[in-house]
Design goal:
The complex is a heterodimer of chains A (103) and B (243). Chain A is α+β, with helices and mostly antiparallel strands and 103 residues long. Chain A is built from three helices and seven strands, in the order H-E-E-H-E-E-H-E-E-E. Chain B has a domain of 133 residues: NADH Oxidase. Chain B is globular and about 65 Å long. In chain B, the strands form two sheets. A four-stranded antiparallel sheet of chain B has the order 1-2-4-3. The chains are: A alpha+beta (103), B alpha+beta (243).
Chain lengths: 103, 243
């Protein structure tokens, strides 16, 4: 029983090791992006920047998959692809896949 | 809304099968808003939002909260400044995330055990962004509601504060306003006495969280995908797990 092993409980995930921490992921449809920059300001994780008037992920996106960029985009140019996952003492448990609100 | 209530009382819940109520829509479309117009929110709307908080359920109807409304830019900027300074200190001492400093990692490994919630990677990322000036604490919202818990409250007073806070958030979004839960002011109320003194906050009140409120820029609300979460369901002598 238990969701975390004893060794997991003790292990603090290394932030710079992608095998231990996976950040959220969004994808941009650049044909639709009009470069308004609302997503850049809406993002709490400094994950989006504008380059040549198009949205782009930053070098170190701290995406928490909140979807605020997806919701604010008037052109529906952003898709949430993946939520974030941690290992060790912060291991993500009991989560399933991404789903829109269901009826 | 009253229509739906009638449907259920008449045993016609089936009619709700493919229709969401207005309340569900507000809940599902609420997104945290981080870009606000400068325009101040009318006083009567903030008072209505406070009423939504006042009527939240609380253990034993204890109402173990205190709401402090801040609409003075000078105070909002001041709290922000204190939080930024604290974030800079934390970042300097214990940002163990990307750089190779062994000392910082050792400190972090000790502190993380007593403060697992504060040093979780996500809020710590926030600390780092605030320190670097990449994340505005209250997102330039014109109104902020600080929520304090009466530590003597029944059961879990901070939980009651959360319930009251979410009532206010949902009321605000139903009016077309935007809100964002902002927890970092804790750094201005727990690690320093300046703001408690300035605002006259003392025992038994303890900072819980705060709400940024204002008119959003653009249309930030809308439904988005979220991960599902395991729900155990016991019925008819059987257990199933739903996602």
């Amino acid at each position: 029983m238990g969701n975390l092993s004893n060794s997991e409980k003790k292990k603090i995930p290394k932030y710079d090791d992608p095998s231990q921490i996976e950040m959220g992921l969004i994808q941009f449809n650049l044909d639709k992006c009009n470069g308004c920059g609302l997503c850049v300001k809406a993002c709490p994780g400094d994950a989006i920047k504008l380059q040549n008037k198009k949205a782009k992920l930053t070098d170190r996106p701290e995406c928490i998959a909140c979807g605020d960029c997806v919701a604010i985009c008037s052109e529906k140019a952003i898709t949430l692809v993946k939520s974030y996952r941690y290992s060790g003492r912060y291991k993500t448990i009991d989560q399933g896949g991404l789903e829109l609100p269901r009826l | 809304m009253s229509d739906n209530k009638q449907k259920i009382s008449e045993g016609k819940s089936e009619q709700l099968k493919n229709v969401r109520t207005e309340t569900e829509d507000v809940i599902l479309k609420r997104r945290s808003v981080r870009i606000y117009q400068k325009k101040q929110v009318p006083e009567f709307l903030i008072k209505r939002i406070l009423e939504a908080g006042r009527f939240a359920p609380s253990a034993g109807n204890g109402m173990p909260w205190k709401f402090v409304v801040i609409r003075d830019q000078e105070i909002i900027d001041g709290i922000t400044q204190t939080v930024v300074q604290t974030c800079k200190m934390f970042k300097g001492l214990i940002d163990y995330r990307y750089n190779g400093s062994i000392l910082r990692k050792i400190i972090a490994n000790i502190v993380i055990r007593s403060k697992p919630n504060d040093l979780h990677p996500v809020p710590f990322g926030g600390v780092s962004l605030i320190a670097d000036g990449k994340l505005e604490l209250f997102h330039n919202a014109p109104t902020v509601i600080l929520i304090f818990a009466d530590e003597r409250g029944i059961g879990f007073p901070t939980l009651d504060c959360g319930i009251a806070g979410q009532n206010m958030v949902l009321a605000a979004h139903s009016m077309g306003l935007g809100t964002c839960w902002v927890g970092f002011p804790k750094l201005a109320f727990e690690n320093s006495k300046i703001w408690k003194k300035r605002l006259g906050i003392d025992y038994p009140y303890k900072f819980v969280s705060s709400l940024a409120i204002g008119y959003p820029v653009g249309n930030p609300d809308g439904m988005v995908a979220r991960p599902t979460h395991a729900v155990d369901w016991y019925e008819g002598g059987m257990k199933k797990t739903l996602y």
